[in-house]
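anyone else get weird line breaks when pasting these?? whatever heres mine. first is seq + tokens for prot A
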Amino acid sequence: MALGIQVFGIVFGAFMLYMTFLQWKKKEFTFNEWAFWSLFALAFSAVSLFPQVLDPVIAVLELGRKLDLFIILGFMFLIAAIFYTYKVVRTTQKKLEELVRRTALERAQQHDLFSKKVNQKTQLKK
């Protein structure tokens, strides 16, 4: 059973390496982003292959199982990722609101100028 989980972990790590490489080649990841996610995938694969590396960490944290550590780390990662995503969305939303506000003001000013020119032309014709 443990061998199946190890193989699955290594396959997942290889898949993550491949995906991060594709994103880097498409210029959607910077080199630093690619390096971070590649190291993360390699570390995940290494821990999957050699789970006994975590024994000292499990002993210090007084956790019952190695899986408990991964569950805790997974929740911490998800919370951090959600917080970061929320921050990026809020920043983008504020920038979009400012852009829409500026565009609306510019269009209103252009409309006012156009209306004034039309009124001037109609008054000249009279």
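and prot B, same format (seq, then tokens)
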Amino acid sequence: MTRTKALVESSLLVSLAVVLFLASNTIPIVGIAFTFLCPAPLVVLGLRHSLGRAALGAAVATVIVSIVLGFVGGLFFLFGFAVLGVALGVLGKKRENAVEIALYGILVSLASKLLLMVLVTRLTGVNPFSLDTAEFDAILDRVLSLYSKTGLIPRESLSVMRRQFEATFRFIPQVFPALLTIAAAFDSILSYVVSRVVLMRLGRGVLPPLPPFGEWRFPRNLFWALLASAILPFFGGNGPWGEILQRAGINLRLLVSLIFMVQGVSVAWALLGRTKLSSRTARGLIIFVAILVPVLSYLLMIVGLVDIWWDLRARLWR
């Protein structure tokens, strides 16, 4: 690739990344679709060019976004999309294992999101780990008062709803690290899948495919994490260390439970693929309903836990 051609292509990719991000922030509802496409041009940039050129392109794109949306908007673009996109492209050029690329991408996404949280907290003074309960109570009072005026919901039910909302709101800061990790994983995998589809359409490089979802299996080492999540709250006593270890246990248990859930859904996806309901639409609808039903979602979690240890698919398909 000649120097001029590389410069032109880099400029076009940077421009496309900026346009997609601006569209995702300015176009209502439909803009959500552009959010999923934002990292794709930067993945191509990292895949087809050197790390230095890709980093320079991401920096230029960040400056343009900052001019249009302000400094905070530029930070969200840089740490929310640009760093991950460039990293996935560079990793895709140097490594051939899709799972390895995705795992490194999750670490990059998590690190960039943590840094973004720190910077936004410094700039705005709003700490996501310590939410303002007074403001939440005021909003909740206004919302519940509207329902009360309609008379559609009995007062007893409104009181129950209030207690549930308050409990959920106070629980969120405790599990914020786990939620941030889940968001990083979702962001990385979705960006990888979308970018790979875009690359295949454009013929601008190739990312290795992830294993079929019905074949996903997590390592048995997760049982140690499950054990740690159960015993951590018992250490540290009643002091500050006790509170820290208790939060660590809660977050670890949430993450491990979600992984077991994903494993169970993978087993269900594979099993349904061997029935008359093998179409993607039918399987997706059945699993979606199962996840929404608490009893069935808990069953999926148990299936995932058992499968990680005994590999149900290998035993059932002998």
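btw re prot B: Residues 67 and 113 are 22 Å apart (CA to CA). The longest helix spans residues 240-272.
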